[in-house]
Structures are given as structure tokens and as C-alpha cells.
Amino acid sequence: HKFFEQQAERYKAELNQAEQQLKEFASEPGGVSPTLARDNTLLKFSEFKASLDQTQAEMAATGEKIHTLEKQEATLPGRITTQSREIDDAPLLQQYKSMLMNLELKRTELLTKFQPTYPLVQEVDKQIADTQAQIVAEESKPVREQTTDANPTHQYVSTELAKAKADFSALQARYTATQAIVATYRTQAEQLEQKGIVHQDLVRTQKTDEENYLLYLRKSEEARMSDALDQRGILNVIVAEQPQ
What is the gyration radius of the CA atoms in the chain, in angstroms? Predict the structure, then answer.
């Protein structure tokens, strides 16, 4: 009885120590139920990891879209011709025609006084020929008038390109933020995994000490009752086999 009583006291002290260690461990961050906290952390880790992969895929698609739009923008003109017409330079032609008329009048006046072979008349004839040639030249090269306007296709591509670049910047920011969150959850899960191992060891030690304490407590009580029966001469007899 004395031996069992001593062993019971020993395991009771160890049980109290194990329970105190569990209590102190539970006061630490994530120490109450580290396994459950680890599972919840892994769930959050998986969600944000999926979001990170999706963001990375969107970044790749947006980057390809930007590359395509930049090539299109480089090949499209910023302005296009909406109207084109050819007209004569009326003021200049009118000036040449007036000069021609004056020269012809001058030649007529000179012919009243001089022969066509007279040098002054021939000079006027040369001026008339030159003026007529200038009139023909101007009439053969009319002035082209064009009206241009902004190219709507170029404007659309430019707008989409600016939007795609803005989206890409936003995706980059989201990717960086999500990447940091994923790293945090990964670290927390690893820490909780280690805490879970320590917690299991503490629980296992506490249960072992409790089982040993209850075992020796029961043995001590049985021994005390046996000693008391022996001291009073009381026997506990069991018939092993009926007599014949």
C-alpha cells in the first residue's frame, strides 16, 4: 500500500506539471488548438494561392494584349482624309489672263504704228507667248484641297491600350500584395505545424501521467483494503472447484 501510494503521489505531481505546461502553451499565440488553426490557415493559403495564380494568368494575357495593341497603334495613322477635291488657283489665273489682255491690247496699239517685225512688237509677242504658256501650266496643275480628321480606329486602339496598361499596373499591385499574403500564410502554417507537434507531445504526456496516476491510485486503494482485511483476519476465499 505504501509503495502504490508513493507512486500515485509521484504521478499526480507529474500530472500537475503536464497540465501546467499545457496551460502555459495554450496562452501562446496559436497554442489553444494549433492543429485546427493550421488547417484553417492552410485553407486560407490555398484560396490566396489560387488567386495569385489567377492574377498571374491575367497579367500574362494583359501583357500580350498590350503588345498587340502597340503594334496596331504603330501601323494606324493618327488622321485620315475625309474629303479631297482639286481646284484651280483662280486669283493667279485671273492675274495671268489680265496680263495677257493688256499685252494683246498693247500689241494691237503697236501694230497701228509699226510692222510685226519691229523689235518692240516682237518683244510684246514674246511676252504674250510666255503668259499663255503660264496660263496653260497653271490650268494643268490644279490645287488639291484635302480635309482630314482624327482616325476613329486609331483613337479606339489608343484608348484600349491605355486601359490595358492601367489594368496591368493594377494586376501587378494585386500580385505583389497577394504574394506577400501567401508567404505570410505559408510561414504561419509551418509555425502552427511545429506547435501542433509540441502540443501533441504535451497532451500525450498529460494523458500518460493521468493514466499512471489513476492506475496507482486504484492499486493503492486495493492494497489498503487488502492490508485492512489481513489485519482483521478476514479472508477472501474463492471456491476453485466444487468438492466431490
Answer: 55
C-alpha cell at 30: 496559436
Kindly report whether the global pTM for this prediction surpasses the value 0.70: no
Q: In this structure, what DSSP letter does residue 185 have?
A: H
- The 3-state DSSP class for residue 40 equals helix
Provide the mean pLDDT of the chain.
82
Share of the chain above pLDDT 70, in %: 87
Q: Cα(113)–Cα(19) distance, rounded to whole angstroms?
A: 144
Decide if pLDDT at 58 tops 80: yes
Cell of 119: 523689235
Q: Which helix (H) or strand (E) holds 148?
A: strand 143-150
Q: Cell numbers for 5, please give them.
A: 501510494
Q: How many CA atoms lie within 13 A of 106 on its CB side?
A: 15
Instruction: Count other C-beta atoms under 10 Å from residue 178's C-beta.
Output: 19
